[in-house]
Amino acid sequence: MIKKGTRVYVEWWDIVADLHTENDIEPAVAQSVGWVDSYTKKYLRLFTTKYKDTIQLADKIVIPVGCIKSIQEI
Q1: Distance CA 65, CA 59 (A)
Q2: What pLDDT sits at residue 66?
Q3: Which residues contact 50 (CB under 8 A, 6 or more apart)?
Q4: pLDDT for the residue numbered 57
Q5: pLDDT for 40-59, tens place per residue?
């Protein structure tokens, strides 16, 4: 299990939607880099931006574990 605070590179499948089409569509491969906030059996939550001063705000993304194609520590 990857520990909280570890910086990672994640490739994952994202949803693609195309309304009123006859085209065959497939999930898109997305790439995210960030610091692990939480890694559970259900999801991976990353800080993609965090602040070093007293600001408590952060940019986050949550990726369902079933959508993760690969994850690497960097």
Answers
A1: 19
A2: 97
A3: 35, 58, 59
A4: 83
A5: 999 999 999 988 888 888 89
Identify which of 63, 66, 74 has the alpha carbon closest to the alpha carbon of residue 30: 63
Nearest-angstrom CA–CA distance, 42 and 66: 8
Spatial CB neighbours of 13, under 8 Å, sequence gap ≥ 6: 27, 28, 29, 30, 67, 69
pLDDT-derived band at 64 (thresholds 50, 70, 90) equals very high
- Please give the model's pTM, rounded to 2 decimal places: 0.86
At 19 the pLDDT is: 93
Q: Where are the domains of the chain?
A: 7-73
Reading the block at residue 61, the tokens are 């993304």
In 3-state terms the chain splits into helix, strand, coil percentages (rounded to 5) of 5, 55, 40
Separation between Cα atoms, residue 25 and residue 16, nearest integer Å: 7
